[in-house]
Structure formats: structure tokens, C-alpha cells
């Protein structure tokens, strides 16, 4: 039985002060045996988030795959381990589109995180043009083939994969529950093709893209959707609390 996981992705938002206030407002509400709740925070807010988290899990939003070296501005997995994060988002479409992340570098990041015992939250999803061209399934399978290459079946079973259609991110134009379910089922099937039944049954698949308090319940009712990755609606304590209350 997969335990649902709902994670807020703050992106480049929240100072340490704002993070402390959010954790004080939300962490107590997030206590649940039925689901895991968490937030992804910018590097500068991670220590504050970890300090304030008894119930929420804390994720970084990116990492580098090398441990040390001449990589100005980057943060390594051992550095994240030291801060105490348990999860790390990799391959978000904003990183793929604006910062040059590829399936190959995302795969290296996944490997390094798994070695360190940090759970990757791997993001994939098609552009609007690919959606319009009927290429969604092809894109999902190709991204997963590259990003999940040469991992162990058990490791993949322990991961979280977020299916986020790019056209639904921050637009208010969320996928229908039928489309979201269908695409999350394709994600699971691709994991089955690559790593077998057990990995496919264990991997948790999130939907992301304009998830709000008013649509979270319908997504969570879908058999292949095990959670959500939430941008805008995770920034205000009140709306994230509403999402938690509706799903715990
Ligand atoms: O990682 C989160 C996604 O980019 C979704 O963002 P959104 O909920 O603001 O559409």
C-alpha cells in the first residue's frame, strides 16, 4: 500500500523569517499516519525549515551530482545531508528549461542522492506543443528512460516521480483528472517496463500543475496518483493547511 506524499515546492520564494513563520503555522497540522506532507525550500531556508519540522519532510529543490569542486554557485549532496534534508526535487521543468538540466544530468543527480539515502523527487512532463502534437506518452517514456537509467529496482521503488505537464504549471489550467490519471499510469507502466512489478507498485507518482485546495481531492482519488507537487498553493500557510486537512 503506497503512502501518499504531498509536497509544496516553494521555488525561489521565502526568506528564513518567512520559513520559520510557515513552519510554526503548518508543521503541527501535518501530523498524519495516512499521508506524508512536506515542503521544498530554497537552499538558504533549508536549515530553518529542518529546525522547524517535526512532521513535515523537507526537500531541497536541486543538487549537483559531484561532491566537491569548481562548480561556482552549486550545492552538493553531502552538503544537503549535513543540513538534514530527506528529499530532493530534481529535473523540475524550470531547471530543464532555464538552467540546462537534461535527462543525463538528472540521472546523475538521482544516483548520487540514492547513494546518500536522500529520496529523489524526479519531475518530468511535456510542453504545451508536445501535448498538442499528441506526444505526451512518448515524452514521458523518453524522459523516464533517461532519468531513471541504470538504477536498482528497489531504489526506483523508493523514489517519488512527479508528473507535471508544463502547460499546467502556474497557469491555473490544471490537467483534467482523467488526463492526470492516464499520465501517472503511463509513468508507472514505464517504471514497470524498466524495473519490474515491485518497483512499479511501490513508486509514488505525484501530479503537479495548478493543484489547489479545490481540486486536490479529485486528483487524490485517482488510483495511480499518490500525491501532488504544489507550487503556488503551497506558499500561503492557509491554503497549504487546507490541502493537508482535505487529504489527511
Ligand atoms: O513544482 C510545482 C509545480 O511547478 C506546480 O506549480 P503550480 O502548483 O504553481 O502550478
Automatic annotation (TrEMBL):
<feature type="binding site">
    <location>
        <position position="170"/>
    </location>
    <ligand>
        <name>substrate</name>
    </ligand>
</feature>
<dbReference type="GO" id="GO:0019563">
    <property type="term" value="P:glycerol catabolic process"/>
</dbReference>
<feature type="binding site">
    <location>
        <begin position="9"/>
        <end position="11"/>
    </location>
    <ligand>
        <name>substrate</name>
    </ligand>
</feature>
<dbReference type="GO" id="GO:0006096">
    <property type="term" value="P:glycolytic process"/>
</dbReference>
<dbReference type="InterPro" id="IPR000652">
    <property type="entry name" value="Triosephosphate_isomerase"/>
</dbReference>
<dbReference type="InterPro" id="IPR035990">
    <property type="entry name" value="TIM_sf"/>
</dbReference>
<comment type="function">
    <text>Involved in the gluconeogenesis. Catalyzes stereospecifically the conversion of dihydroxyacetone phosphate (DHAP) to D-glyceraldehyde-3-phosphate (G3P).</text>
</comment>
<feature type="binding site">
    <location>
        <position position="210"/>
    </location>
    <ligand>
        <name>substrate</name>
    </ligand>
</feature>
<dbReference type="GO" id="GO:0006094">
    <property type="term" value="P:gluconeogenesis"/>
</dbReference>
<protein>
    <recommendedName>
        <fullName>Triosephosphate isomerase</fullName>
        <ecNumber>5.3.1.1</ecNumber>
    </recommendedName>
</protein>
<dbReference type="GO" id="GO:0005829">
    <property type="term" value="C:cytosol"/>
</dbReference>
<dbReference type="GO" id="GO:0046166">
    <property type="term" value="P:glyceraldehyde-3-phosphate biosynthetic process"/>
</dbReference>
<keyword id="KW-0312">Gluconeogenesis</keyword>
<feature type="active site" description="Electrophile">
    <location>
        <position position="92"/>
    </location>
</feature>
<feature type="binding site">
    <location>
        <begin position="231"/>
        <end position="232"/>
    </location>
    <ligand>
        <name>substrate</name>
    </ligand>
</feature>
<dbReference type="InterPro" id="IPR022896">
    <property type="entry name" value="TrioseP_Isoase_bac/euk"/>
</dbReference>
<comment type="pathway">
    <text>Carbohydrate degradation; glycolysis; D-glyceraldehyde 3-phosphate from glycerone phosphate: step 1/1.</text>
</comment>
<keyword id="KW-0413">Isomerase</keyword>
<keyword id="KW-0324">Glycolysis</keyword>
<keyword id="KW-0963">Cytoplasm</keyword>
<comment type="similarity">
    <text>Belongs to the triosephosphate isomerase family.</text>
</comment>
<dbReference type="Pfam" id="PF00121">
    <property type="entry name" value="TIM"/>
</dbReference>
<dbReference type="InterPro" id="IPR013785">
    <property type="entry name" value="Aldolase_TIM"/>
</dbReference>
<dbReference type="GO" id="GO:0004807">
    <property type="term" value="F:triose-phosphate isomerase activity"/>
</dbReference>
<dbReference type="InterPro" id="IPR020861">
    <property type="entry name" value="Triosephosphate_isomerase_AS"/>
</dbReference>
<comment type="subunit">
    <text>Homodimer.</text>
</comment>
<feature type="active site" description="Proton acceptor">
    <location>
        <position position="164"/>
    </location>
</feature>
<comment type="pathway">
    <text>Carbohydrate biosynthesis; gluconeogenesis.</text>
</comment>
